[in-house]
Amino acid sequence: MINFEYPEDQEYFTNLLANRDTEKLESDFSELFDFENPAIKREKFNKISKKVLKKLLDKYGNECQLKIHEDCSKVNKFEPDHIVPLSSNELNKK
To answer: What is the number of other CB atoms lying within 10 angstroms of the CB of residue 80?
Structure first.
């Protein structure tokens, strides 16, 4: 069950994603929402970061995926956030 902190948020996303159908929001879109505390997510991630970084580098190569600065890939020292930003929540979904 999706547990929004504010009813207005639930209403907003129900209207946006599920055409005002709360059951559809639950069944079709619940995987889009992750309400776990970010500090807890970071702690969990730090425990597995070296393993994750190796997999990401194998998949994406030594190229920064953030592309914030043009010289970033030239440094050749990456953190996992450079390959798949934690803020994207992509790793948590997989």
So the answer is: 21
Instruction: Say what the pTM is.
Output: 0.48
Does a structural domain hold residue 66? yes
Residue 14 lies in a domain: yes
Q: 57 and 81 share a domain?
A: yes
Percentage with pLDDT > 90 across the chain:
31
Task: Name the residue range of residue 4's domain.
Answer: 1-35
| Cα separations in angstroms, 42 against 22, 39, 50, 86, 87 | 30, 5, 13, 9, 11
Residue 68 contacts residue 78 (beta carbons within 8 Å): no
92 is a domain residue: no
Instruction: Choose the most confident range, by mean pLDDT, from 45-54, 67-76, 79-88.
Output: 45-54
